[in-house]
Amino acid sequence: MDGWSEQDGSSRQEALEQFTKAQRLAHKYFSAAISRGEYPYPQVLGEIFDERMAAGRQNIGVVDIPMDRIVGTTTSGRKSAFAGNFMPLLEERTEFGAKWIALCEAHLSSKGITEPIVCVEYMGRFYVTEGNKRVSVLKSYDAVTIPGHVTRIIPNYSDDIHVRIYYEFMRFYQVSRIYDVTFRRLGGYARLQALLGFDPQHHWTMEERRHFRADFRVFSQVFEKMNTERLELDAGDALLVYLEVYSREALAASQAEITKNLHAIWPDIRLLAADSPIEVQAEPQREEKPSLLRSLGIGRISHLNVAFIHAFDPKVSAWTAAQEEGRLHLERVRGDKVTTRSYLCRNDTAVTVMDLAVQEGAQVIFATTPSLMDACRQIAARYPQVRVLNCSLSMPYAGVRTYYSRMYESKFITGALAGAMSRNDRIGYIANYPIIGTPACINAFALGARLTNPRARIVLRWSCLPGDHVQAFRDEGITVISNLDGGRRPTDNAPEGDVEWGTFSVERHDNLMPLATPVWNWGRLYEHIVDSIFSGNWDLSDARENDKAVNYWWGMKSGVIDVKLCDDLPNGMVRLAEILKNGMERGALTPFDGRLVDQNGCLRGDGTQCLSLEEIMRMDWLVDSVEGNFPAYDEVMPASRELVRLLGIRRTDEEGAAQ
């Protein structure tokens, strides 16, 4: 036959064999779907969508569509020709079969399948209008992408989590032009942009898209292979954890290296999928009865080298100075068994400094600021034998324990003093950052003030916003102000007249009189943690918590926080503070055990039981006696944004803080 060649015959035979193979896959998928009671055909967009659900349509142009995102057709006309995996159900001798085989031959030829399909994208999934058989043929060859003319249906905005994530994706797509990566949690797209080292408005180059897609494809394959537990996570969710611990360059590593890295951080990935990833320890654990091995001295630790990693110089930072006092306390009370050393670093040198500490023998690392968390996670993955802790709250990382204090208990007491000492019903409160734990402090202060003055109103301002807030309160005639407790360290050797710490009163002639302030006893906290290592409770906790992240959040009962009272405080106020403190230490008094109503009139507590520690920790609301609200991320001064990104109670999509 003219024009016929042996190569043509070979292609024809291969196409026939490919059709047979694809048809077997179709019947296998179809039968399995029927047995599970699932829909066996490709989804039909018209059956799950009507125009009332759309806010509009947008022509996206020609896009490289990920094959695994093509899930159906726009109409039902051809749905019975394919199983849900787009493999062919009709027979070879049909017109459909002949066209499928002809397309397969074209794919095998030098010409290939080049004509883009036409499809509609809705909520990140694609529905084919023209080109079903092209999709089927290329899927049978495990093609990764296919070019297509895409029309996007924009869903009506709502509070539905999937719609909110999709709106985040649309913003991400404007700069990236890729569909490959998906997330199951808010903030993922902007967080990815930041972790890749791009500014929020950076438009990806063609080269950046090509490299990322190739690297992410390998990463996804490794993740899916490792995810034998069938964690309810997308590869994109795992990617964020990976990039938070390792560098962008580590994404371009070999499959073997990515597998090794993922294995080291798999506990954190597992926690990401957990409903309750954090176990909050409310008080130091009592020493357990030692096991037989420990009673014989086997496995008992006799000495610890403890490293303290500071991000700020204690000579200029009151926060770090207080942490250093805690370190020195630990040396005084446990000096026969503990050797401590402090290190100073910047955020960009933290990993290097922590690595040096380990090389110099550190067995325990206390990183004293939340901004060092990413470095802590890298070190924990690199040195699993080292106990790593970070001074922060509500962090779901298995390899790094966090520690903080329930400062809201002290705030309740200072609030009660403020309510009793105020000469009118308005009390000023300057909060530091809109981060986890701060709402509990504000609300506890407000409830304490209401205890002694039922008409008290708390006027809220934020130190992370511009302005002289103390002076603004004075100008408004407010006579009692709660300022930052850590902004000026309340010590006996504070400079004379340095009274703008804690809660103070504005007296006649504008004189300021300190009343009281919450204080941290970091040394007691470090003492408790080190003792738990010596006693074996640390390791027992590992077994009991079943891979949960351990967060120490101790209160007044454990001695890690207190209230410092001014020497000139009236005797009645001293007595009041002592009564409240005693009740707090005995567990007879808690700030959040009454009826609680928020600013919107919603009932948050009916008074029959106290809020749980988790509810208190994760508060993102304010009681009805507070005037003010939480600042948005872009309102916060730039120097404060990193902390808000890490611990923000309302982490914004725009700056990539993961929820």
Task: Describe what you observe in this structure.
This protein has 21 helices and 22 strands. Residues 1-6, 486-499 and 651-659 have low confidence and may be disordered. It has 659 residues and is α/β, with parallel strands linked by helices.
Features:
disordered N terminus; 659 residues; elongated; 22 strands; alpha/beta; 40% helix; disordered C terminus; 7-stranded mixed beta sheet; 7-stranded parallel beta sheet
Q: In one word, what is the shape?
A: elongated
Most strands sheet = 7 strands, parallel
Question: How much of the sequence is in beta strands?
Answer: 15-25%
Order of strands in the sheet with most strands: 7-18-12-11-10-8-9
Summary of the model, kept short:
With 659 residues, the chain is of the alpha/beta class.
Helix-strand layout with pairing:
Layout: H1 6-36, E1 43-44, H2 45-48, E2 54-66, E3 70-73, H3 95-108, E4 117-122, E5 125-130, H4 132-140, E6 145-155, H5 161-176, H6 188-195, H7 206-226, H8 235-245, H9 255-272, E7 278-281, H10 292-295, E8 304-310, H11 318-334, E9 338-344, H12 350-359, E10 364-367, H13 373-382, E11 387-390, E12 400-405, H14 407-421, E13 426-431, H15 438-452, E14 457-462, H16 469-475, E15 480-482, E16 503-506, E17 512-520, H17 522-535, H18 537-545, E18 549-554, E19 561-565, H19 571-586, E20 595-597, E21 603-606, H20 613-617, E22 626-627, H21 641-647
